[in-house]
Amino acid sequence: MGNDNLLNAKSAKYDEFYTLFSDIEKEINAYLEYDPDLFAGKTLLLPCDDPEWSNFTKYFAQNFGNFRLKKLISTSYAPNSKPREIPYQPPLFELEDERFDEEKTVANGKIFTLTQDKNGDNKVDVDDLEWSYLDGDGDFRSEEVTKLRDQADLVITNPPFSLFREFLAWLMDGDKKFSIIANKGVLTSKSVFPFIISDKVWVGKTPMSQDLLFTLPKVYAEKLRSEKKQGSSWREIDGVTYGRSPSIWLTNLEHGKRHQPLALMSEEDNKKFSKHKEVKGIGYVKYDNYDAIEVPFTDAIPSDHKGVMGVPISFLDKYNPDQFEILGASEQEGKGFSNGLWDSTSGVSQPLVHSEKKFKRIFIRHRQST
């Protein structure tokens, strides 16, 4: 797929894709609408965020007083002397600071903190950030940054795509409240899906159908433009090149969308009136190799089916844990997730309907079902 070039940061050896300010604002507003006191008196850690580039630090520094934060901590990673496809470019404030040493062969990460009005303008904002070098390179897995995680109440960031699984495990090990950006492809992976089944992690407010755009360093934007067609890994808006990614927000912070009931019809009404040809006049068909019925679209889920239903991955965008129970997923992405629904003698892990292969499915049932 065209987006693989942007998402496969491990191969590209470059993970700096900067989330748009507006995307951060929309997502965080959804959490605050549900819980206006979410950040009040809390320490917030942004563990992948240099404010010269990152909008996360700028956004939360700007809203420090409005959110009634107690402390904001932001850390950035330094590439050390490891080879990089794109050279490290120190931010201007670092270059202009007497602590900067351009002769150092090993760079240190940086830590930024915000707690109070430092410049006497009677407000707390980005101008009051204080910074210093970390002892190490700022890798989130380091003991130094892990200690900061343990001090924090919440963690919010866009972690490196290539280290997402490790980053999520790091958050879960620390038992932190969080909201992070991830590739949609991780949803049914072994590192994420068990947390979704157990309602420990869910999709954020931003629709899964919305591709997130990211600002890019100039040299990498030029690389994408020269190697990929517009609309695949990048998009141009008002003369600016943005990275394009099929990404989502993953979180364990509550938001109102998560508790909105999905409108449903009975099986009989769906058969009569459904707008989907796969259902209208036919009804629901059982899989050849899974003990469940095929529901091809989220808006075609029947209200009165008592058994298990296979639905598209996009169902997670509408998932209401009060209304549905997630039982598992088809075997193709993470074997063992079908929880006994799969007939392994079929020899085919993809769901089959009359021998026709379907895309990967999530298996659900109504909460009132037994």
N-to-C CA distance: 41 Å
Annotation, overall tally of beta strands? 18
Number of domains: 2
- Give the helix level as a range of percent: 10-25%
Main β sheet profile: 8 strands, mixed
State the order of secondary-structure elements, H for helix, E for strand.
Answer: HHEHEHHEHEEHEHEHEEHEEEHEEEEEE
Number of helices: 11
How does the overall form come out from the CA principal axes?
A: elongated
Give the spatial strand order of the biggest sheet. 5-4-3-2-6-7-12-8
Describe the structure.
- The strands form four sheets. Strands 5-4-3-2-6-7-12-8 form an eight-stranded mixed beta sheet, sandwiched between helices. The chain has a four-stranded antiparallel beta sheet with strand order 1-9-11-10.
- The chain has eleven helices and 18 strands.
- The chain has 370 residues and is α+β, with helices and mostly antiparallel strands.
- It has helices at residues 4-7, 9-12, 21-34, 55-62, 64-67, 92-95, 143-151, 164-173, 193-197, 218-227, 267-273, and strands at residues 18-19, 43-46, 71-76, 110-114, 130-133, 154-157, 177-183, 202-203, 212-215, 234-237, 240-245, 247-251, 293-294, 309-312, 324-329, 352-353, 356-357, 361-366.
Briefly summarize what is shown.
The chain is an alpha+beta fold.
What does the secondary structure layout of this molecule look like, with pairings?
Blueprint: H1 4-7, H2 9-12, E1 18-19, H3 21-34, E2 43-46, H4 55-62, H5 64-67, E3 71-76, H6 92-95, E4 110-114, E5 130-133, H7 143-151, E6 154-157, H8 164-173, E7 177-183, H9 193-197, E8 202-203, E9 212-215, H10 218-227, E10 234-237, E11 240-245, E12 247-251, H11 267-273, E13 293-294, E14 309-312, E15 324-329, E16 352-353, E17 356-357, E18 361-366
